[in-house]
Amino acid sequence: MASAAFAVTSPAASAVAARSKVLGGGKNQGRTDCRVGITRKNFGRVMMALAVDVSRFEGVPMAPPDPILGVSEAFKADKNDLKLNLGVGAYRTEELQPYVLNVVKKAENLMLEKGENKEYLPIEGLAAFNKATADLLLGADNPVIKQGLVATLQSLSGTGSLRLAAAFIQRYFPEAKVLISSPTWGNHKNIFNDARVPWSEYRYYDPKTVGLDFEGMIADIEAAPEGSFVLLHGCAHNPTGIDPTPEQWEKIADVIQEKKHMPFFDVAYQGFASGSLDEDAFSVRLFVKRGMEVFVAQSYSKNLGLYAERIGAINVVCSAPEVADRVKSQLKRLARPMYSNPPIHGARIVANIVGDPTMFGEWKQEMEQMAGRIKNVRQKLYDSLSAKDKSGKDWSFILRQIGMFSYTGLNKAQSDNMTDKWHIYMTKDGRISLAGLSLAKCDYLADAIIDSFHNVN
User: Fold this and answer.
1) Which of 63, 126, 158, 354 could form a disulfide with 299 if both were Cys (CB 3.0 to 4.6 A apart)?
2) To 5 degrees, how large is the angle CA 284–CA 286–CA 290?
3) CA dihedral for 349, 353, 359, 365, sign (positive or negative)
């Protein structure tokens, strides 16, 4: 608390004038929580005390809006009937409504029937969930699981899993750097910045081809200091939708192994990208099969639609069971002061679905349907662009991309035009979420993209 006091040795009228002057100008103008009080009268003199309450948070600036969540806020404020939200990566039906999987509803009903309690989970989470998630990621018959080489902790979806691993890196590999693709998911850099882990970028996107800059990627990984952590998107790269081919994944693994780097996979779309849990886990399983130690962050936000449940895991594949035990013990040690223990509801949903053959089959069918809908709108968008654009531009890169997102190649000014003129909300790097697109809106979106690409510099 800061305060200032002064005395006015003049009649009361002068004191009021002085008071007005103080409140109306000077360095305290506009400050909140100012109060003026006449404390006592003494022989015609008026003693005035000005107490200025200064917040302890005076030095805290306003944070900029989140670049992705801010898109949704702007979309909600728009009253135009044609508006379209292609910013946030959340699945929508053909009617552009949120979708709760039927198998999730069944799993929740089963939980209610069992009358399960809400007691605290252990720090590492629900044991049945941890087993299910490692089995899904690596394959239940994978030797590393049978040999006890995997340390798995349930965590707070993909973001929390990445953050926990970042804290582990900062503590036990303080000299190491993390390599992040350029571009990458908007929160990756925030996570490592807040964990005080240094990072640099490796080339990934080639604007000339709207494809993968594979040579640049390999060169940058080769040039990185030995023992770096290389952050890789397991499938459906966000934001580009561009994935390496199986042959390219082999070469990436070669270089990482030669340089003694640590591969660190972010797996947010297993089963949601292609519709196949096994196909989307190819990259991770390839590295594990080579005998490499690997970090993997998982999320069930997309493939089970459990966005708000914050359900995921961090897995560390180690070289020996005793190493896995030590790693797990330290991850638990880091989690305890960070969030103590994870939530149980989403973990039980996953465990129930994976543990029941009937529900597991139903889940796979629903994933195929969701992935299929996105593939359909991707194809329709390509067809619309190709039919409407008479310039001869090749839009086939849209079909080569996979998963929820498409990198359109539009720059910031062109993306602004999409919003300002066409009421289509998207991130300013040209990324659109096809999960927020319907077949009925593809022609409209194609018109907007063609206008923005050709008519805006």
Assistant:
1) 158
2) 120
3) positive
